[in-house]
Amino acid sequence: MQTSFSAAQLADPDTAESNRILRTCVHCGMCTATCPTFLLLGDELDSPRGRIYLIKDMLEQGKPATEQVVRHVDRCLSCLSCMTTCPSGVHYMHLVDHARSYIEQTYTRPWPERAMRRVLSFVLPHPGRFRLALVGAWFARPFAGLVPGASMTAQRLRAMLRLAPAAVPSPSPFERPRVHPAEGPRRARVGILMGCAQQVLAPSINEATIRLLTRMGIEVVVTKGQGCCGALDHHMGNHDPAMRLARANIAAWTAEIEGEGLDAIVVNASGCGTTLKDYGHMFREAPEAAAAARVAGLAADISEVLTRFGYAPSRPAPGLAVAYHAACSLQHGQKITAEPKALLKAAGFVVREPAEGHICCGSAGTYNILQPEIAGQLKARKQDNIARTGAALVASGNIGCLTQLGDGAIPAVHTVELLDWMAGGPEPAAVVRARAAA
User: Fold this and answer.
1) Which parts of the chain register pLDDT below 50?
2) ∠ at Cα 19 (16, 20), nearest 5°?
3) Which of 330, 239, 320 is nearest to 285 (CA)?
4) How many CA atoms lie within 13 A of 13 on its CB side?
5) In total, how many domains does the chain have?
6) For the whole model, what pTM was predicted?
């Protein structure tokens, strides 16, 4: 693709990177075949190729984002399926992230949308605020269907209330900064990202991760000062808040790396893992560049760590069929596809793969709130494909996907909870529900 950025424009590192990405695209259109929004809407501008043209024109002209550009870029899930499909290696993730930041700097959204985005940014990355918000949402949840109107604001309010869980788990003692010692001889020492929304919605995931790793002889450090990875703000175009959150994590883990050392930084929410592994790029021009690159190099999905250290079950095979839902951030963002399925099989589960496994479930961070209609269609499509497998459970490695799919007929559970169970941990609540329904 030919571009015509000026020398002054290319002096900006983000524009220079976007120019490089744009010039990689050969217009082949293979990305359209695996794009969820193009699949549903059939509009070229709701495909990666169409968005690339819109972004190119916007950035080259140096003009403010238009309503048309914002509408089509907002509809992008950042599922990154296009990057898996692309034969030319177009790094669409970095391009659309730059576009979103540019949009927030140059476009004034309607005030209800600005207000909702600010609320999401203020609440979701902070566990204490999020927990309080969910308590309030619990009281309002029964009245979600009574929110009047067909406007996007009304749809978003209804979606937000419907996503609120029926009960909010109590804070877990595992979340507190401390060192969880290895059982037996220490084989490794790792940090763990406790996350933000996940530790509120499903603290059992972090608990299972720590139990399993320590049982395998791996010391786990919950580092003081860490928090949200920054992904939620980053993908809404909120550049400065995202960088502040990421910078705090880099400082926290750097202190630990330079202290007793870390062999890995374990992430059990794949959306967060994709962002952590991109810290080197995000901070490439910053004073923290070297530290950020070091943290990014140590970041590893829990499935990678368990594979590296030889996970083995200690219980007999449970005789349960599990539909494995590959989170987009894991299969497309991190290119991890084989490890979770191999681990589940090693644990004794019968693994079934739903049709259209490469298509997003519609969660995508805050997407199921900000684009509820499209997210709902993708959710129904995904749950339909999962149901057709005849599995008793659906397992995934991302809290967003589990929240999106968890209200279906088949209980949803994090992969690591099943692996912990088969290695001596407690039976997950989702398994209890699945057996009761059988």
Assistant:
1) none
2) 90
3) 239
4) 6
5) 4
6) 0.93
CB 70 within 8 A of CB 103: yes
360 within domain boundaries: yes
User: Residue 152: which of 374, 310, 351 has the closest Cα?
Assistant: 374
From 307, 326, 360, the end of a domain falls on: 307
DSSP 185: S
Q: How many CB atoms are closer than 10 A to CB 283?
A: 21
CATH code, domain with 205:
3.40.50
Of 307, 336, 371, which residue sits at a domain end?
307
Structure tokens at 334: 């991190």
Shared domain for 123 and 201, answered yes or no, is: no
pLDDT digits (tens, 9 = 90+) for 12-61: 999 999 999 999 999 999 999 999 999 999 999 999 999 999 999 999 99
| Structural domain that includes position 126 | 111-163
Q: Please check whether residue 168 lies inside any domain of the structure.
A: no
Is the same domain home to 148 and 121?
A: yes
Task: Please indicate, yes or no, whether residues 14 and 71 belong to a single structural domain of this protein.
Answer: yes
